Structure formats: structure tokens, C-alpha cells
């Protein structure tokens, strides 16, 4: 069975783009804690209302809430998953091992990239929630402005994809990433890819990593 994949990288480093490639070409299942949280907000529940202000500000949701959502949406038995956006701190990395992976064959991939170039990527990101396609107004524009090439649905510009919020999200990422990388590196579970390469090149690198596992 293919290894469970843990994608670690700053906002905009290309995790969702590569997850989509891995789903389409390799049959991976995808779990994005950001998507799960946004779905909870869309329900308009009491929890969703609390979550909205946290996501809009670009802050992290508490570990217990995210772990509960993750566990409720992930059935590892017989399936290979991509964990995208989780873990965001060392405690979450440990919780993923203890409560979800439980010794399953897994590896972490770090999307290594200079954070400054990510601001432009993120403010130009547009997403299609139903098809899962991810566009960029500069590097991957849709054929018809504002519409998904695949589903025709209206593209979404996430509220937290603005420059101020992105800077906060980057700072939170910088504060937390080193212990996560040390954790996986110390266990020989970490691979790095140069996430500044084109999306096609990054995908080739990831496929090689999976094949060599
Ligand atoms: P993440 O899931 O890590 O936040 P995304 O995959 O959503 O990042 O990508 C953020 C933005 O950058 C999107 O607009 C996407 O089209 C674009 N993008 C993704 N990978 C690359 C790449 N390798 N080179 C240039 N732009 C990219
Ligand atoms: P993302 O879709 O990964 O860019 O995440 C969007 C937002 O969801 C983040 O800025 C956080 O507010 C929240 N979020 C996503 N994943 C987590 C997580 N693992 N822990 C805490 N907050 C999270």
C-alpha cells in the first residue's frame, strides 16, 4: 500500500495543488483540515461561527477541535491519505501519530520555499471548492474569468487570502515549523522538495519519493 503522506509547508507553498495531482493520478484520499474547518463554518453552526473569526484572522484553531474534526473524517483502514495542513505544530504532529496513524507506514514531505515569494502566490489564488481545482490569476488563470475550467462553478477568493492575514499566517508558520521538521527528521521520516520549482516538477519529485519508499 502507498505510504500515508504528511504535507508540511507554508501557506501557498503548493500542498493543495500537489494533493489534487496525487488524488487524480495515484488514487490518494485527501484530508485538508482547512477544508474541514471551512465546511464547518459553511454549516453556520455555533462552532462554525467561532471558527470563522479565527480563520478570518489567520490564527490557529485549538488543537482539540482540529483533532476531533480530523478523526471524524478519516478512516485509515485500507486507504492511503494525504494530510494537508495538519500538523501545524509539534503537539499536532505527535497527536497524528498517536491517534490517527498508529504506526501506519507514513512519510512527511516538506515544501521548502522562500516565504516572501508566497505572498504573491496566495493573493492571486482562486479555488473551486466542488472540483478541487486550484487556480492562480498570474500562473494558472482559468479560461473564463471567475469560472472553473472543469466544473464551470464560480471561483472563490478566500477571505484569509489577503496580504495582512497572509503575513500573520506566515509568522505563525515560522514560529512552529522547526520543531515539526526536527520531529520527523529525527525519526528518518522527512523528505524535502524544492517548492519553488514549477508545479509539474514538484509533482515529479514527489512521485519519485513515493516510488523509492
Ligand atoms: P497551499 O495548499 O500550500 O496553501 P496551493 O496549492 O493552494 O498552496 O497553492 C497556492 C497558490 O500558488 C495557488 O494559486 C496555486 O495555483 C499556486 N501554485 C501552487 N504550486 C505552484 C508552483 N509550483 N509554482 C507556482 N505557483 C504555484
Ligand atoms: P489552510 O486551508 O491550510 O490554509 O488553513 C486555513 C486556516 O484554517 C488556517 O489559517 C487556520 O486558521 C485553520 N487551520 C487549518 N488547519 C489547521 C490546523 N491543523 N490547526 C489549527 N488551525 C488550522
Structure explained in plain terms:
It is a single chain. The protein is of the alpha/beta class and 213 residues long. The N and C termini lie close together (11 Å). Helix 2 (33-43) packs across helix 3 and helix 4 packs parallel to helix 5. The strands form two sheets. The chain has a five-stranded parallel beta sheet, with helices on both faces. A two-stranded antiparallel sheet has the order 5-6. The relative contact order is 0.19. It contains eight helices and seven strands; from the N terminus they run E-H-E-H-H-H-E-H-E-H-E-E-H-E-H. The protein has a domain at 4-28 and 80-114 and 160-211: P-loop containing nucleotide triphosphate hydrolases (Rossmann fold, 3-Layer(aba) Sandwich). Bound molecules: adenosine-5'-diphosphate and adenosine monophosphate.
Features:
213 residues; alpha/beta; Rossmann fold; five-stranded parallel sheet; two-stranded antiparallel ribbon; 15% strand; binds adenosine-5'-diphosphate; binds adenosine monophosphate
Amino acid at each position: 500500500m502507498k505510504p500515508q503522506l504528511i504535507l508540511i509547508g507554508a501557506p501557498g507553498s503548493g500542498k493543495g495543488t500537489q494533493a489534487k495531482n496525487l488524488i487524480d493520478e495515484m488514487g490518494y484520499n485527501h484530508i485538508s483540515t482547512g477544508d474541514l474547518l471551512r465546511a464547518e463554518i459553511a454549516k453556520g453552526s455555533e462552532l462554525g461561527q467561532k471558527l470563522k473569526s479565527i480563520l478570518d484572522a489567520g490564527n490557529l484553531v485549538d488543537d482539540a477541535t482540529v483533532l476531533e474534526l480530523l478523526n471524524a473524517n478519516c478512516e485509515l483502514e485500507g486507504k492511503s491519505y494525504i494530510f494537508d495542513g495538519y500538523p501545524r505544530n509539534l503537539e499536532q504532529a505527535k497527536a497524528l501519530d498517536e491517534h490517527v496513524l498508529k504506526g501506519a507506514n507514513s512519510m512527511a514531505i516538506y515544501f521548502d520555499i522562500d516565504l516572501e515569494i508566497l505572498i504573491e502566490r496566495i493573493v492571486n489564488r482562486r479555488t473551486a471548492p466542488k472540483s478541487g481545482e486550484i487556480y492562480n490569476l498570474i500562473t494558472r488563470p482559468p479560461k473564463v474569468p471567475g469560472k472553473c475550467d472543469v466544473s464551470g462553478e464560480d471561483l472563490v477568493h478566500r477571505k484569509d487570502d489577503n496580504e495582512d492575514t497572509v503575513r500573520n499566517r506566515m509568522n505563525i508558520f515560522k514560529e512552529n515549523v522547526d520543531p515539526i521538521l526536527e520531529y520527523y527528521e529525527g525519526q528518518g521520516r522527512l523528505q524535502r522538495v524544492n517548492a519553488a520549482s514549477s508545479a509539474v516538477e514538484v509533482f515529479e519529485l514527489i512521485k519519485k519519493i513515493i516510488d523509492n519508499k
